[in-house]
Amino acid sequence: MELEKWFKLKKYPHIGLPITIKDYSWVKEYVENPIKIKKHSFLPLIHKSIVQRKFRADTSIVSKNPSGKRIRKKGIPKVRDIYFSSHLDSIIFSKYNEILCDAYEKYILNKDFNNSIVAYRKIPLTPGSEKNSCNIDFAKTSFEFIKDKSTKKLTVIIADVTSFFDNLNHKILKKQWTKVLKKTTLPDDHYNLFKTLTNIKYLESEQLFEAYDNTMWVQTGIPNSSTEKVFKRKDIKKSIFFKEKNAVAYCDKEEFIKNNLNLIISKNNERGIPQGSPISATLANIYMLEFDELVFNKISSINGFYQRYSDDLIIICEQDYEDEIIKYLRDKIDSVTDLKIEPSKTKVFRFEELSGKYTGFQIDENTKAINLNKTLEYLGFSL
């Protein structure tokens, strides 16, 4: 039996025992029934803060390593707030992510900016290819545009949207969600997902662990059987041992409802959707639809280049348009999406012939002061 692509089993512990392959039939019937999804009660998300460190080229050191690449250093740690759905809820989000992905792809199929939106999509490496493009290819496309225009003085703008997922305006999200489905209002089943994602209810993972640390559910094997598994209660001393102990659930749904509803935290803001949900990335692309089209058309009108990878944007244009495009970008991100460009992460580079060589260098956006030691970096790659 071939399983649906959205039927993705999760291994992280949550409330209630995990979904298994044995549950496929009833889960499929459930998630494909809009009436049931309309009435579905989503469990609280589980929140974890994950610290990430990015390694960036050390522009303070001019010399390079033996492979010819710049020496890299640890960047400033970035804390990401990740929210985990219960196992059934996650499958529901995966199913509706498939629906929305399909609707989004159909919506932009014949749009000129189709290939400029590159994150969270399957974009063939070449027309008809079974292999999809990745960050290397997206960066390469940008860099090749610069090289192909090496007879011109170019400006490259690298911009980052401030706290992207945390700042999505719910009214705009609902409008764009409805638009991509080609409806006048959100269908009831979709609206239930929208409410869940915009009125976030969550639990702190460590608080939930403290409530059930000595009665966690774990998966264990049966003696004399290499395939059969059973679930049983186990005392786990620290959450870092979850993987080692095969922890699969904090508690049953019934005991959580009976004993621990007081742990639920409500986050009823007018902005933001949770990172970590199977549907969040697609919703982010849908949210940016109008902005992407406007900016692409503007940049194309001056024979430039536009690409967006999630909250990272790159714009390439001739230097004569530099100030106009920077202003246009900031104006449209504000007026169309109600978001902001992160000032500290906005970088402006120029490419032009210096001493007989086509050279890239960073400039100060305001003073236009030149820094020859800083080179263009996009999606982790340098030019």
From TrEMBL:
Residues 89-383 form the Reverse transcriptase domain. Signal peptide: none annotated. This is Reverse transcriptase domain-containing protein. It comes from the Bacteria. It comes from Lacihabitans soyangensis. It holds the Pfam family RVT_1. InterPro entries: DNA/RNA_pol_sf (IPR043502), RT_dom (IPR000477).
